[in-house]
Amino acid sequence: MKFKNSLTFQLGTIIAGILVVMILITSVATYKTAYDKLYDAAGIEAYGCANITTGLIDPIEIVKAIAGDVGSQANIGEQLNWTTAHKEIFENQYIVDLDGNLIAVDDNLKAQGFKPGDAFEYDKAAVSMLLEMKHPTYSEAYEFAGIERLTGYAPIYEDHDPSKEIIAISAIDFNAEIVTERTWGVVSGGILLSLIPMLLATIVTAFLIRRKTKPISLLINQSKEITEGNLTVEPTAVKSNDEIGDLANTLNIMTYKLQNMIATMTATSHQITGNANETASSLSEINDSMQVVSNNIDEVSSAMTDGMHHADNASNALSKLAEDLQTMKSKADSTVENSHKTMQVASKGEERAKEIRLDMEKIRTGSQVVSNTIQQLVNSAEKIKHITISIAGIASQTNLLALNASIEAARAGEHGKGFAVVAEEVRKLAEQSNTEVKEVEKLIKDIMERIGNVLVSSQENEKYIEKGSQTVQSTTDALHSIYTAVSETVSEITTMSELLSTETAKSDEIVQRIQELAHSIHEIENTMNNIAAASEESSASIQEISNRSIESKQMAEELENYVKTFKVK
User: Residue 556 maps to which CATH number?
Assistant: First the structure.
């Protein structure tokens, strides 16, 4: 910084200027006072001498001179020469009438080219006051005939009797420039002497200002280092207890707090980056788990479709069996000759019953697979639930860290605005992550409820399948009995007819049960489709959370790079 731009130079210049102005004002006031006093003294002396010399002039001579007597005018002029001869400070003396015309003049005035009878310049205001107050007076300074004059006026009374009229005026001119010269001679020494303490005061003031502003320069250098990001600068030691000391302490405290804030932000940015990486990893695992769940659900849905087709086939087979049993009963009632045909029909019925039993076993196996898959869904949903809890914890911790960063930025004031914007964005992302995690928890809860419903329906289906298997087994046994009975004896056809009636009723019941089973399987299929759709939505939400986590990581890295621009201990 140039010296002329420094605070020391500027304050010194201001104070020196004030001192100069004060000295000028004092000098002008002193000069004016001295001038007025000297002017008054000169005027009083002028009209005093004029008044004294008036008494020395013969009043008769004055009357003659007013009348134009040249001899009297010359005599009076000789008397006037005595005054200027003994008072060299007087320029000239003369007597004028009340109209300002010269009556008598001294030699000095004659030398200036004036003679009795000439009009002469005079101060009309002063003369008017003299005539009114009948008291000697003096004029203001005026210039006439190339001379700046101060004139003292004294009245000349008729017969020198103050009770009578004023017939003329005695005037003495004083060179007004002498007043100016003598005034300057009086005050110049004092003014010159006053410059010495002014110079001393200026030097002492500059020294004191420099001494006081030196710590400010050190504080400015410290502030420049801080603005350039160097927080390792040593604190400025100022021992004074004034405002500069307070400024130094405040700047040192601010530096210390900035060091702590930058260190905290560095640790926070590292932690945010680590948390973002962990969150991304966890979300990836969740997404993989959701994909497995979706695949399992697709397999369950496919198995449900197959089970429904098998149930339809079983229903059709049992319906056909019922029709065959009814036909066998009619033929048994009609004729014994048809017993052989009845045996054949019974044999076919037994075979079909065995097929139905095998189909029921397949349905049972499919139902068990469904139950196992649903249990796996329950386990996967539990894992997802734990993962979302972890994500919620991370989001809450991130929100807390963002809040702490906002507080520290607010403490930093103007320097912390950039940090406050970053902390606010991190906090918003954390809150959004927390909201989306809650949505995931809600979806998982809904999935758990639906899986529970599916599990209950599956357990009910197993009961129906077990019952259907038992019924098919009974049908198989009955058909075998029919076949045995027909082969043993035709006489038992009547009994067989009754049994066929019973089996027909049971076949109808089995058909109804299998139809109910098919309906349940269809409902399970719809539920699993809903679960698959919810799983896809959850996967999309998790992907969005993962994207937000990546954004949080990028912002944390940007914050870390910004913090690296500062140097801390």
Answer: 1.10.287
